[in-house]
Write a structure and sequence with these properties.
This protein is of the alpha/beta class. The protein has 6 helices and 10 strands. It starts with a strand and ends with a strand.
């Protein structure tokens, strides 16, 4: 793995960020962040975040970015399109932030096998609290950018993850890492960041069951 040229599957949140850190620690050449965007709404497929936020992360981390427009119907085709382009540029592996959802792991492994890319899942099998502990111990700032108010108190939207937040999730029997969609984060500072990202927002919007920060 050391020195291998890899991309990082990038949602902008805590799991993809920690997987980037671990890939760097392993000596991988993490040359690109790959994010799939909704071709109809110009936001990320994973968390519904506007593209300018990913541009800011890319600049702060000093890592190039690949944005691929897809829909849910052609997501895998979009993945394979990106793989062809990256392989032509010398990439041989991809890093993914999956923790404990077997269906996600299987999809990653199958899609990478089809493309001829090595899949790396450095967080796989970690306890969810350990994931958060590693990040918080490194003074990482994780902004809560979306949540389900039927599961998580809306007061947390726009605040950063801390041990009080994690304790509340555990007390209510929820996934500490939000693996069932309880909440989503965006990394705004920590190891590898050259600068802190300030994300001013003008309010809150709701889409279905989820509340999102509405950015300026």
């Amino acid at each position: 793995m050391k020195g291998e040229k890899v991309f990082v599957s990038w949602s902008g949140g805590k799991d993809s960020y920690l997987s980037l850190i671990k890939a760097k620690e392993a000596g991988m050449d993490t040359s690109s962040l790959v994010t799939f965007i909704n071709k109809d709404h110009s936001c990320s497929m994973s968390h519904g975040l506007p593209l300018q936020l990913f541009h800011r992360q890319s600049r702060a981390l000093e890592i190039s970015q690949v944005l691929e427009p897809v829909s849910w119907d052609d997501y895998e085709k979009g993945f394979q399109r990106v793989m062809v382009k990256l392989i032509e540029k010398g990439y041989t592996g991809g890093v993914f932030g999956d923790i404990n959802l077997p269906g996600h792991k299987q999809w990653v492994e199958d899609a990478c096998s089809k493309a001829g890319i090595n899949p790396y899942l450095p967080l796989w099998g970690m306890k969810e609290e350990k994931v958060l502990e590693e990040l918080l111990n490194q003074n990482t700032e994780l902004l809560i950018v979306a949540l389900r108010p039927d599961l998580v108190d809306a007061k947390w939207l726009g605040r950063t993850v801390d041990w009080d937040f994690i304790g509340e999730l555990k007390k209510n029997g929820l996934s500490p890492c939000g693996e069932s969609g309880e909440y989503h984060t965006m990394a705004i500072f920590g190891p590898l960041f050259k600068e802190r990202i300030d994300l001013p927002y003008k309010g809150i919007r709701q889409e279905g069951q989820v509340l999102f920060l509405d950015y300026l």
